[in-house]
Amino acid sequence: MTTGPQAHAIRVLRRRPGLNQDGWFRLALRGVAILVVVPILWMMVDTFSVTVPVWERFGIPGFVTGLRWAPSFTIYGALPFIYGTLLTSAIAMLIAVPVAVLIALLITEILPPRIRSSVAVTVDLLAAIPSVVYGLWGLLVLVPFLRPFEQAVAGTVGKVVPFLAGPTPGPSYFAAGVVVSIMIVPIIAALSREVFAATPRLQREAVRALGGTRWDVIRTVVLPIGRSGVLAAVILGLARAIGETIAVTMVIGNAPKIGASIFSPGFTLASVIANEFNEANQELHPEALIALGLVLLVISVLVNGLAILVRQRFARGVGRVA
Amino acid sequence: MSLSALAVSARLRSTSRSRRAKDRALEVCAWASLIVALIPLVAISLFLVSQGIRSLSLEFLTSDPPGDLSATGGGIRNAVVGTLLMTGLATLIAVPTAIALAVFSREIGGRVATSVRFVVDVLAGLPSIVVGIFVYSLVVVATGHFSGFAGAIALAVIELPVIVVATDELLRLTDRRIDEGTRALGMLRWRSFLSVFIPTALSGIITGIMLAVSRAIGETAPLIFTALGNNFFTLDMNEPIQAMPLLIYRNALNSAFPAARDRAMGTALVLVLIVLAFNLLGRWIARRARPADQR
Amino acid sequence: MTSAPIRLQPPPWAGATEAGTGLGADRANEVGPEAELAVELDRVSAYYGARRVVREISLSVRRNAITAIIGPSGCGKSTLLRCLNRMHELTPGARVQGRIEYHGLDLYAADIDPVAVRRTIGMVFQQPNPFPTMSIHDNVAAPARFNGLVASKAAENELVERCLRQAALWDEVKDKLKAGGTSLSGGQQQRLCIARALALEPDVLLMDEPCSALDPIATLQVEHLMAELKRQYTIVIVTHNMQQASRVSDETAFLTMGDDRAGYLVEMAETIEIFTNPKEQLTEDYVSGRFG
After folding, report:
1. Model's pTM, two decimal places?
2. Nearest-CB residue to C103 (from A6, A16, A22)
3. What is this model's ipTM?
4. Does the domain at residues A61-321 carry the CATH identifier 1.10.3720.10?
């Protein structure tokens, strides 16, 4: 029959040649993905090619372990800045991690439910403050505030331990570490909160039913289950600390060498780039700064990648337990 | 009570006393940590308000800074406008791109999507100064000069991962039954995303955008390499342009001069108010969207 | 339940579909036995990867009738249904073997557009799934609008009213068409989904346990609806509720799970035969409640 149901069916259901609309849609999506990923990769390649003269001059190990940074003599070495980055990050983590984890525990385990989200939002506000404002406050308020404390330490313990000795000019690794610690507390706290909140109720209540205190619940259930999640949060905090630029550059004192104590001025990888780039007109100076940026990039990608892996492990772990 | 029962009950009581003591200690430490963390928040707020408010005036917002940082007077108009222009353009670039990437991730799926998500996650973790260097190599070197466009691109790269992650998380929550419903109705996929999935996820996406914008407005480091800054007022994005964080930074470096100090404080106050407004607005939208029992 | 008359539309192949052209084409005009069958299955098997869940099912679905597929849970009834509108293949690794003919046309031929198939063979699901961000009006109108089936706002409003009447929902929602689709009760939402499916002017309507999430009153409303709808559409319903199958359907197919954990067709016949005088012992056992 040329009319009737079959003819109608043929008319309506037959495909037109070529891609159907869903196929075009998927193609367009792939196009966008390529358009985004390719320039990003290109940027990395381009940046690397700018720095080639630096690697040729010093060699990769030579540059990375070089102790001197003297643009006027065209001598560049990354070690003082790597040292500064590691030291300030370490100080920041030592302060921030216990504080942040305790805050997260406070919010999820101790506070009454009604005020939990208000307190959480308030802590998160710390993350909203721009880095430059932290730097401004750090420079004008925190550094002078810390000086008496620094002098006290330098005057006592510092006499025995050179690492903690004076002089204490103010801007220093220590000051930078303190400022950065304030900045990374909200990140570690927020992620740890999520981790603790994901603890299975069943296990919590089991401990309570056996007469356990909140501390018992935390000790036996929340922390063990949340271990890798908190680790991921800490690593992400570290990643942020490593990359912090502007606040650091305003309170670290800007000295391109390895300071003798934590109260000495110094530089981090990020802060030296920000500080010197706009006036970098010596030979190879801009290229060397960008090379420092690449070193920072490599460290950052490694740390972030580690965080992502640990986080995946946590996600899988919670799935199994729950 | 028998002797053994007495012994047992005594042991129970003493154990629980020491556990209770640890419990109290934990509580004290936790509260102490909260206070320690909140002290800077309060201190910074007081600092900004007390020091910055005396710089605020209509003139402050409508005139440009003097050429010499140490001179008093003038305002921050060029910086405010520059920030708005660059952040606006950056958001215009970042939002459709980010949503498209998230849709790509959901629709194409599989290993390709996982690797794209991985690239986005790595991008999210990059220090903003590294982003600045990248955009410098790609745009500033290629065009030969610093510009507001380069700054906008850098800010877009910073906003992108935040919005992608927010959109992706929300699209993940799309009810499978709704998805099946659209397929059973023979709806084209682009149509399903445009008219069903994205509108359902919209408030969460808007929150992500607000948080991304509040972050981008405060960024300084990437702008050092791209927009550079400018003492004059300009609407030309093809030239170096000023932005509020840059202005604060440069004035802070000269904070020995009281005029520069005051200018930095005033700008910082304005900046923080704007950033907080976006941040809190974004959170408020997110709360309203969640069903009442989850708030 | 509405008492207003339902306006019939002529079947799509009877020429230009203009709104309000009165009663549908006279079925007596069509000759030939193939006019009686809407869908024919020939040794259809369905797989998830290497695992077969439906084994070699052959049956025919009569036009303008309600065909019920019954059987114990897990025996592949829903999977079989989803093969009819090419939804099964959407699961990664899923595939269909065998031949499914729609009015003589092989639905799985390479030159058939599966999206078009789903517009012609519509589906209503177990859980109502109205679009949450659309109003009642838009829930019904949007899919039709996206497919270019309505030319103007007036035609759209007319379509919405017609479909809501067909779904026996018009009287309850006509004053709140702008309200959200999810603001209705469960039974109303399901009828909304039926109206939405009807808006695409399908030929066949597949219903996958449409009443299992509804209360008894809503269930009866939907069953009454089906009896009206079959005048114009072909309906295939999967249900685990035997009483429902015996109430509404004209023909019934009984599936059960074989030893290979795949569903197979035990028996298919007129509903009255299946329930009062089945040929197979298994069927007899199932309908008298001895298992399942």
Report:
1. 0.85
2. A6
3. 0.87
4. yes
